[in-house]
Design a protein that fits this description.
Layout lengths: L2 H27 L5 H5 L2 H23 L2 H4 L1 H18 L5 H19 L1
Length: 114
Amino acid sequence: MNKAVLALLIVFSGFMAAVSQILLKKSASASHASRIREYLNPYVILGYGGYVCVLALNIFLFTKMQFRYGVLSNSLAIVFVMLLSRLLLGENVTRKKLAGAALIIAGVVCFAFF
């Protein structure tokens, strides 16, 4: 498989993990009519379904590339969670969070290319 396609799949995997986390946070922040609705609602079902898809994609990726490249999706997910939580949940992004995201991105670049 083409390296560019694999790289895009790594980024997509990190993004999907972040979307799944945001969905679960939205569910946790909402009020629910019953205890069962806390666990059986669209946000939770889609969130955990997303995690299952990310797991399957990561297993596929680990069979096609070196392990050291596969773990990059976890690092990218942290950055995506920060961005999506700002855009979708209105959470504050502090200078410390931005500095942390910059360090993560720098680490991903160093890890991937050196």
